[in-house]
Design a protein that fits this description.
It is an enzyme of class 2 (transferase). With 543 residues, the chain is an alpha/beta fold. The chain has 14 helices and 29 strands.
Amino acid sequence: MANKKTKLELTWIGKDNRPRLEPRILLEDPEKSYHAKHRVAKNDIFDNRLIFGDNLLALKALEQEFTGKVKCIYIDPPYNTGSAFEHYDDGVEHSLWLSLMRDRLEILWRLLSDEGSIWISIDDNEMPYLRVLLDELCGRQAFIASNIWQKRYSRENREAIGDVHEYILVYAKNSNRFKDIRNKLPITEEQAKIYKNSNNDPKGRWRGIPMTAQGFRQNQMYEVITPTGVSHFPPEGRCWSTIESEFLRLKSEGRIWFGKDGNGQPNIIRYLSEVEGLVPWTWWESNEVGHTDEAKKEIHYLFGKVDAFDTPKPERLLERVIQIASNVGDLVLDSFAGSGTTGAVAHKMGRRWIMVELGEHCHTHIIPRLKKVIDGEDQGGISKTIDWKGGGGFRYYKLAPSLLEKDKWGNWIINKQYNSAMLAEAICKLEGFKYAPSDSVYWQHGYSTETDFIYVTTQALSRDQLSLLSQEVGNERTLLIICTAFRAQDSDFPNLTIKKIPNAVLSKCEWGHDDYSLQVENLPSAPKPEKSQLELFDFAEES
């Protein structure tokens, strides 16, 4: 039997059903935007974005401007556990959960920069399926780590085996470079205790690192003589970690330690001042990054005990993610904002941020929390550790309504809530133009290149008006005209392309669909399976 290559692929009911998303425009509400009254630091950031609306539509709205620009994405999506939470309905049927996550992850992956990475909190219920889904979307080579967060520090006697951890999956756009891109973790005083200075070395605290390495290398198998005359060779199965000339250089610089009595095997002296940080690893202990009790106390501190989230994440956990994945000034995105922890921590750490939230807690929790951060009143979480004083700000946006609506006869028409500026911006986004209205040229609403422009109007254009436009555009430029009606043939004006609205955009997407959320009541019913659940959610083989 001939060998054949197989590709593992996760299959589920409705996998091929994909939404045709409308790229909405974002409308700022200045009354809900908030900024510090004065600069606190030179690098204060004021153009952060808080977006209220369905997170899939919001991601689609961000796609044109932010594709390839986000350095770090962290999301904490509903885990599909079957539990009912106050702010989320977390019991989405498995196949629907996979479809809804797939649709969001596809856009999130496109938003990442070439040096970007995505970090996803998840528990055991969906983690294996999410791993395979991410492998399929991002490529298996993009996988970096499955970090284990110790969310609890006490045992639960009610469970068969205590649930003490969650996962944070990490995928990077450039996994080969991620080691060079990511940051190390700062060393804590507890971790620094192994560095001593028993000999009053003027260079400060140090530790001895055994000068051996695994394996056999001929030029690293030399004899070492201690100051007391004791001879040492590498232990069996090992060699010295450096060649002899390098060892002699280190010895001449006083960087070799032979133990208190001077008879021991050589150790290379490493000073605490030389330690740039610790390489991250996949075990994240609660005493290092916080736990669920700590997270709840942070929420209680901000909002009181009456109205608190059931499953918040501690600020130290987000600090760990953002520390590894980004630098000051980089852009961090969270499309499942929840109580706003990601934005709050990113703000305190000097990162730019975008958050998306649909629930009313965007107004009752996130905005008040961010105001406290900006005013310097939030001294919980990581604030005291990093000496947070406040500053900066954010802009609040909501999704515009659907561009098209049906009139009483069932015909598609331009939504009455759209003014001329909103219409021009929406059409630019739909046609792939950058919205940039000119102050001096009335027909330049946007551009795709330096010589290709777009003009959007609700007028019916006559042949004379089109002739005049054609003359102004000239032979070196082109203009796409979107209007309600026109009297001419395309061939009459070679530098003009003329389309009617709404016919010009009717087929581009699905209109009037405002909610793609993970709330069960907003989802279509899945067809009844004919096979068993185990057969349906399986790994299919492709030749």
